[in-house]
Amino acid sequence: MVYLFLADGFEEIEALTVVDLCRRSGIEIKTVGIGREAIRGSHGILVQSDMADKDFKIDEKPEMIVLPGGMPGTKNLEASSTVQNAIDYCVKNNIYVAAICAAPSVLGHKGLLNGHEAVCYPGFEDQLEGAAAGEGTVCVSGRFITSKGPGTAIDFALKIVEILRSRDIRNALSASLVYNR
Fold first, then answer.
1. Is 66 among the domain residues?
2. Host domain of residue 104
3. Strand runs (DSSP E) across 71-116, as ranges?
4. Cα gap 2→7, rounded to integer Å
5. 101 is catalytic
6. First CA to last CA across the chain, in angstroms?
7. Is residue 181 part of a domain?
8. Which pLDDT tens digit goes with each residue over 72-108?
9. How many Å apart are CA 109 and CA 40, to the nearest integer?
10. How far is CA 174 from CA 65, 84, 139, 149, 164, in A?
11. What is the CATH number of the domain that holds 167?
12. Given the residues 22, 90, 101, 120, the one annotated as active site
């Protein structure tokens, strides 16, 4: 199971692209709304999450957690004890943590990117405390997957599919989307 956290002000493209592509590839993914189930994105789109954070239990050992960016969504994720506890659990148990856009800053502020490569939305690089600048649109370093922003959401989601399933499934999904990056 993959859990993607939604907080008010999340970037819709980043969150929903991951959910869509995971489900298309057979990866079970659930959205977790911070504070409630109905969460409004940074562009006013109201999304009904699969569960509110009060119903989320990290001890079910996820395959991965995903943090979409957006503002103030990233700040709201960082302020959530549910998200903080999920990140800590994943790091302790060698589980993937994926973050896109401004959300890698949450990992940087916790000191988790020390010795890793990472990418983020331009202008947030100084928030990736201890990380070396990664290359390309998506960077995988250890159990951290980071990406730059809305325009890299398909690359980010496809990398998640590749890591959790296979390169063949990723390539088939990419072809079915007529995606040729």
1. yes
2. 2-176
3. 96-100
4. 17
5. yes
6. 28
7. no
8. 999 999 999 999 999 999 999 999 999 999 999 999 9
9. 25
10. 22, 32, 18, 19, 15
11. 3.40.50.880
12. 101
